[in-house]
Amino acid sequence: MLPTENRLRRRQDFATAVKRGRRAGRPLLVVHLHRGGEPSGPAVPNSDSRPHVAEGTPSARAGFVVSKAVGPAVVRNLVKRRLRHLVRERLSGLPAGSLIVVRALPAAADAPYLDLEHDLDAALRRLLRAEPTGSAPTGAGR
Length: 142
What we know:
alpha+beta
């Protein structure tokens, strides 16, 4: 189980991570990561467009999406438990204030724990080494 301060609960927080964060797809899962320091869109007065974070708690938070396409409830819950355990061990390595959403794909239903771990680690490595949007010069490396 994830501690309360590390859980994504609000629909708006899931949407922020998915729509404004970076995405890395693997055969078993898709990981969406919105870093705490990334801009969340244009500033609009009286608009609560930033992710919900308790005052003084800049910890990374995670949420999981396991649809019915993965399998029946027993299988979905097993996949969710495995992913929660894997993400809990990696939260401390994420930037403060980050939002992470892990979406299980149907192949995750039959996948061994080690394969889920490998795909999650590969996706996180890719997302964490990627530079924030707009920082890379255009046409570089040609």
